[in-house]
Amino acid sequence: MTQASKQELEDGTTNLTLFLGRYRFAIWHPYHALSILNDFLLGFLFLAGSVCFLFNPLYWAGVWCFVVGSALFVARPTIRLAHYLHVGRRKSPGEWDF
């Protein structure tokens, strides 16, 4: 059974915890984790694109790997900006949910 919990830390960041059976996965800084995941995907796509360029039948697959990888380059500053600008919604007058 999968469960998840969300906890606000003292420094204002959020701790996400996923429980999968007897395992617990804690994500202490979700924006940093997302940025690292983005970098892994970006590197994998550029590596795959480079390998696809070595074989003529895979040329267009390589082109698409580079296009998607380039879009992930654009996502990098977007993730960093989202980390600093967090939008909250108002629960009630004078009270915000961040």
How much helicity do the residues have?
Answer: 40-55%
Number of H/I helices: 2
| Subunit arrangement of the protein | single chain
Strand order in the largest sheet: 1-2-3
How far the N terminus sits from the C terminus, by CA atoms, comes to 28 Å
The SSE order reads: EEEHHEE
Shape from CA axes?
A: elongated
Summing up helix and strand content along with how strands pair, one would put the structural category as alpha+beta
Work out the radius of gyration: 19 Å
* Tally of DSSP β-strands: 5
Q: Please indicate the count of domains.
A: 1
User: Main β-sheet: number of strands, strand sense, barrel status?
Assistant: 3 strands, antiparallel
What is the typical, i.e. mean, pLDDT? 80
Residue runs with pLDDT of under 50 for 5 or more positions: none
Strand content is 25-35%
Structure description:
This protein has 98 residues and is of the alpha+beta class. The chain has one domain (2-88). It is built from two helices and five strands. The chain has helices at residues 30-53, 59-84, and strands spanning 2-8, 14-20, 23-27, 89-92, 95-97. Strands 1-2-3 form a three-stranded antiparallel β-sheet, with no helix packed on it. A two-stranded antiparallel sheet has the order 4-5. β4 (89-92) and β5 form a beta hairpin. The longest helix has 26 residues, at 59-84. It is elongated, with a radius of gyration of 19 Å. The two termini are 28 Å apart.
